[in-house]
TrEMBL record:
The keyword Secreted does not apply. One of its GO terms (biological process) is mitochondrial RNA 3'-end processing. InterPro entries: DEXQc_SUV3, Helicase_C-like, P-loop_NTPase, RNA-DNA_Helicase, SUV3_C, Suv3_C_1, Suv3_DEXQc, Suv3_N. One of its GO terms (molecular function) is RNA helicase activity. Belongs to the helicase family. The lineage of its organism: Eukaryota, Metazoa, Chordata, Craniata, Vertebrata. This is ATP-dependent RNA helicase SUPV3L1, mitochondrial. The gene is supv3l1. It catalyses: ATP + H2O = ADP + phosphate + H(+). Keywords: ATP-binding, Helicase, Hydrolase, Mitochondrion, Mitochondrion nucleoid, Nucleotide-binding, Transit peptide. It comes from Cyclopterus lumpus (Lumpsucker). It holds the Pfam family SUV3_C. Residues 356-524 form the Helicase C-terminal domain.
Amino acid sequence: MSVNRCMYLFSRLQRHIRTRTTSTTAGTCHASSGSGFLHKQRQAGSVVCSIHVSSNSSSQKPPDTSLFVPISLKTDCSGDGSVGLELTQPLHKSELLKVLNRFYKKKEMQKMASDHGLDARLFHQAFISFRKFVLEVTSLPADLHIILSDICSGAGHVDDIYPYFMRHAKIIFPMLDCMDDLRKISDLRVPANWYPEARAIQRKVIFHAGPTNSGKTYHAIQRYLAAKSGVYCGPLKLLAHEIFEKSNNAGVPCDLVTGEERTFMDSDGRASGHVACTIEMCSVNTPYEVAVIDEIQMIRDPSRGWAWTRALLGLCAEEIHVCGEPAAIDFIRELMYTTGEEMEVNTYQRLTPFKILDQAVESLDNLRPGDCIVCFSKNDIYSISRQIEARGLECAVIYGSLPPGTKLSQAKKFNDPDDPCKILVATDAIGMGLNLSIKRIIFNSLIKPNVNEKGEKQMETISTSQALQISGRAGRYASKFTEGEGTTMHRDDLPVLKEILSHSVDPIETAGLHPTAEQIEMFAYHLPDATLSNLVDIFVSLSQVDGMFFVCNIDDFKFLADMIQHIPLNLRSRYVFCTAPINKKQPFVCTSFLKFARQFSRDEPLTFDWVGRHVSWPLSAPKNIKDLVHLEAVHDVLDLYLWLSYRFMDMFPDTALVRETQQELDDIIQQGVRNITRLIRATDPLQTQGSRGGQAGGNNASASSNHLTNSRGQRAQRGSGEMDSSLASRLVRDGLLTPDLLQQLQKEWSKDQKLEFINQSALDTEPHNNNNKGKRKKKKK
């Protein structure tokens, strides 16, 4: 078939493309000089003609060829032996090099290669590999030897190299030979069709819409409890535990399924009719009468949104009860159009009043019982909790990396009317999963580190949705506080908070998707030599989604894939390991993950004794914050063991012993958190660093919240008050600090220094502070 004939056929297909969204992919078509389009088969030297027509969108994006990694070929292979040499004559490398370089410089060859999938980057890489192969291989294939010999002797044309060059390019870049298949596999435009069981039934969808503390989830759960069978899908283990306990207390047998835990109410291990699970663990094959999907607005979460999409489209339930923000109503209704299912909307109002105060707290001296100070940094939590207890007050502490048992223990302590603890210091972890008796939410800062859809970390002002979710925890229905209040710690933040809350929540416009293990396995079939990280990169690069969806961030997956790439694992096991929910910021957790994978690859079971030696069990109570952080990391490692044990039961056999150990460790961590002020005092360098880090991160701590009453606190305050201009300029340059915020911080630091001078003068008049006075004078010199 000639080039002209192929181009004629291509033009004929254009009408098909416009009307039926089909297109032709030329990446598998290759032309030789004067003979037609070539397609390289697996057998060396075979050349045939082929044209592929795919059903991809006419607007398909070109592949990101920077992700295409060439395969290294051995140059010591014998090829066709010495057949080519016997038929022609020996080839001189100097002549070969001249011929090959002439071929490389021909614009016509580059243009033809570009038309068939080799852009400038790939053409260059393929030529380097081809030249190395020709010059270094022990014995060239007979057909290539003959062609090169003819060109060197003047009997052939340099263009004749092209089909053999393309044959080589398709060997080192196998994706060129199957681009059409890869595009089909990564076509994510109709995810509703992935769940034939759900499409086989007509489901009724009920959206329970309302703000925090409006009773929307309560009404969905009442229907769940009344059903013959049901599944609850929540974003957190704590929420799944809450529904699990509520269901069983109501006389409805309910099982618990999370990534790390399976609890069956039946003594024989038979499944109950009801199950409460984290949303990633819900089964899309089991039929239910009622399904409840909580916090549906998280369908747009850059990392986890795929789990809500999967549950909403895939659950086999007669009734799907969806709970979440009103901002998701229109999008979920539109998504249900793709499945042909109608949606009923029930709207709820907040059960208790809530108001934003007109005055900021400004000083920790103005705290009241029922206050919750919300921070977005663990270091700020350490700093503020220490300052509160320095004033003779007790406080509870809750942040994300604490074990669930410790969070519940601290929540119980704060809620107990007979406990002297009346203040809570927490991160936004309180936004979901914990019932707390809070009167007033106090934002210590409105700046929070976020990860965008590209996986980049950035400092941003909290969104309206986040502000509503957190502030809505105040004045919970049925608590002792019948009205909720919200304010800020710093005066300048209050108008910003009011402005944030004055806006409506941004409507949800997209839902997350994620490549499945089956899709990656099909990719690996076509690209057997690619690494898992590279497979996922290419998948995302080629993936096609319509305007309602996006591919979730895969940076954590790739991080783990690269970490264990050198370990020999089959693809399915490697994929499962890489989906493990671990905190990659914890070096000890990452090291443990690596050791688990290495032990697994040796086919050696990970026993309790092995794990105990690895974590140095038993562990003692923490003596400082560093010890507490390490204990939290060990708890995460045991979580990882339990998570893997439900995927590889034979290799992680001691689940019960590890769970008992984890419960003991939880008690030790609770003991440490109860004495967190003592731990902070024992970690003076960390405390000073935390104070600086909190300000650099944009938390604009004021003099009143950073000024400690003891001499150690004064030293920390002095350290944070000294403004390093190079650090400030670097933070502004990196976007972590705005010029306006920098000016605000400088003003506050100057105020701090004045207050410090006054306090120092007062302390200098006390006889027992003479030594401190001498030290200060010596420092000033």
